Description:
Blueprint: E1 7-11, H1 13-16, H2 27-40, E2 45-49, H3 52-61, H4 73-97, E3 102-104, H5 107-110, E4 111-114, E5 117-121, H6 124-131, E6 135-139, E7 141-145, E8 149-153, H7 155-165, E9 170-175, E10 196-198, H8 199-208, H9 220-233, E11 238-242, H10 248-254, E12 261-264
Parallel strand pairs: 1-2, 1-9, 2-6, 3-6, 4-7, 9-11, 10-12
Antiparallel strand pairs: 4-5, 7-8, 11-12
Helix pairs in contact: 2-4, 2-10, 3-4, 7-9, 8-9
The protein binds 3-methylbut-3-enyl trihydrogen diphosphate (IPE).
Amino acid sequence: MSAAKPIILKLGGSVITDKDGELAAKTEDINRIAEEIKRSNTESLIIVHGGGSFGHPTAKKYGIKEGMKTPEQKLGYAETHHVMTVLNGLIMDALVWHEIPSLSITPSSCVLTDNGRISHFDETVLQKCLEMGFVPVLYGDAVLDNKLGFTVLSGDQLVAYLAVKLKAEKIVIGVDTDGLYEADPKVDKTAKPYLKLNLEQLKKVQAKIGKAQTIDVTGGMAGKIAELIPAVEAGIPMQIINATRNLRVQRGLTGERIEGTIIEKA
Ligand code: IPE
């Protein structure tokens, strides 16, 4: 039985999928990360993954985030959720074959939102999983919404929500850059990552970077920061790391010093 506070690991869509492709999973990276998670021997862990080239293009195609305007969109909602279960299946494959006792918890079956914000999530089963030493795995998903009919729930909102609710020890955010940058490092090659930010500095950074020019329905890097701020406000430390590089996930989980952006309240 685990009494330790959980660590929450987010695996961004750009880490586990090729965002330029269509339904393109990066299976080698997924396997490497599963191995690193196993080796980290983390006592209490929750994994949340993103949608990448599975969830985002499908959600965009049917306008799922903006809510239900026509009944025909219901098929698009089902398809968006379905492609997420396919991606989740690939992640679960890697985790289980690396002997991690992981269990998939499907957000669309247990989360309701109100205008895009989580309004219902019964975490009893998730808590029980943690107590028994299982690793719950959740993901950004298409979810039913009290006002909109349905919408897209980002993995980042789930991460912050769970971190605050379960008083997480820390959050490790795996992305495909070496942390949080002043400017988009894929556009500006001279841009450098921030090493450490407090809450006040993070809010300034958020104001500075506009929405990244991506096809993400959940808002790119600025959206990511906005979602994560409540967890920082609750005093939960966080590190944004490059999960496409060897051993960063493992070391991020074990708390070894690695490159990346550390974010703390004060
Ligand atoms: C998006 O989740 C899920 C869907 C589009 C259905 P995220 O917003 O967490 O995904 P990434 O990490 O940005 O790809």
